[in-house]
């Protein structure tokens, strides 16, 4: 029995040293979420706005090396495995980029823009999109 425990410990240490264990845990969580979602209810179709928002979040997560969180987001949200083209995102959001802004996620530029501009009172009026509907049970 002790050799099995030693083997488990050695495998765990090796996987941790290689950086594989956190990825395996994240993938397992993603698969569990996916299995639970399949059993309860099908996901509503991903709206265009949600696709853009989720892709902005994924780009941010990958940039900050939150790859495990990004893999769970991808699995849980129904995002395609392949990232959307950054230029496509910039065009959809009507964002102009220069060389320095291309080195960081688009979300950084958007947040910076709204923090440094806006109306005279420092506030921006947000309007809900017509194709975005709150999920069932969400607070109104």
UniProtKB/TrEMBL annotation:
Signal peptide: none
GO biological process, one term: determination of left/right symmetry
Pfam entry (one): FOP_dimer
PROSITE patterns from the UniProt entry: LISH (PS50896)
Keyword Transport applies: no
Ranges where the FGFR1 oncogene partner (FOP) N-terminal dimerisation domain occurs: 44-113
GO cellular component terms listed in the entry, alphabetical order: centriolar satellite; ciliary basal body; motile cilium
Primary residence: cytoplasm
Subcellular location(s) per record: Cytoplasm, Cytoskeleton, Cilium basal body; Cytoplasm, Cytoskeleton, Microtubule organizing center, Centrosome, Centriolar satellite; Cytoplasmic granule
Family to which this protein belongs: Belongs to the CEP43 family.
PANTHER family: CENTROSOMAL PROTEIN 20-RELATED, FGFR1 ONCOGENE PARTNER/LISH DOMAIN-CONTAINING PROTEIN
Official protein name in the record: Centrosomal protein 20
Organism: Oryzias melastigma (Marine medaka)
């Amino acid at each position: 029995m002790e050799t099995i425990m030693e083997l488990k410990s050695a495998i765990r240490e090796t996987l941790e040293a290689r950086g594989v264990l956190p990825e395996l845990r994240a993938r397992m969580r993603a698969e569990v979420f996916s299995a639970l979602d399949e059993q309860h209810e099908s996901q509503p179709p991903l709206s265009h706005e949600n696709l853009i928002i989720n892709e902005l979040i994924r780009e941010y997560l990958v940039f900050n090396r939150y790859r495990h969180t990004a893999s769970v987001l991808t699995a849980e949200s129904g995002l395609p495995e392949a990232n959307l083209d950054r230029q496509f995102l910039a065009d959809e959001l009507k964002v102009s980029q220069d060389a320095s802004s291309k080195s960081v996620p688009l979300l950084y530029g958007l947040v910076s823009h709204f923090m440094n501009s806006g109306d005279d009172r420092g506030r921006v009026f947000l309007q809900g999109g017509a194709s975005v509907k709150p999920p069932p049970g969400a607070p109104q």
